Here is the input.
Amino acid sequence: MEVKTDIQSAIVSIKSKLPEGVSLVAVSKTKPAELIQAAYNAGQKEFGENYVQELLEKQAQLPEDIKWHFIGHLQSNKVKHIAPFVYLIHGVDSLSLLKEINKQGQKLNKIINCLLQVHIAEEESKFGFDIDEINTFFFSKSAINYPFVKVVGLMGMATNTDNLKQIEKEFKLLSQLFEALKPANNLTVLSMGMSSDYQLAINCGSNLIRIGSAIFGNRVYQK
Ligand SMILES: *Cc1c(COP(=O)(O)O)cnc(C)c1O
Here is the structure.
């Protein structure tokens, strides 16, 4: 099959066009370990997964030096499974989840890197803090309560629409928030942009893009 070489050329092509300072997370959810290995062989070391069980199975069989990003909605009772090895948790959307991550970090004596997810989309269904809650979190220095968590930045997902103006508006909103909070809080990571909108996201200031289907092809979900 040509699938593996397609994946490898997609990786090389996307990476060659990324501006300095922008990193790529290859989103491998639903894709078999074999295809992740192919991407790895093309030089990709950072992968994103959405489901804990699936991540655990893949992590056990793939190279140790992969940086695993957890990009899905994380349930508190599952944090303990990924805490020992996860590189960055993108979707932190509640203080109770942050508290649980802190607890698991303490048990391991490990500081766990996290992004706070910001609700920028119009849809009700997208998770995340609203902008006021984010401002309150940083202005009240809430991070002190979570010494085994390091909040390194923000993550967001735009509305699922073809309206580029709408998407741009949402990305700019998140980017402005990030720029405003960055200096006083040592934030370094702004995770925004997926296969369909990553160019726009980079233009709006993203420095971490999460790309799945443009690398691995469309996903087929089994019911
Ligand atoms: C699945 C997913 C992606 C990748 O989406 P593509 O459109 O396939 O690039 C990026 N970010 C999150 C949070 C996802 O759940």
Notes: The chain has a mean pLDDT of 96. The CA atoms of residues 85 and 132 lie 32 Å apart. The pocket of pyridoxal-5'-phosphate is lined by residues 27, 29, 50, 71-72, 157, 194-196, 210-214 (CB under 6 Å).
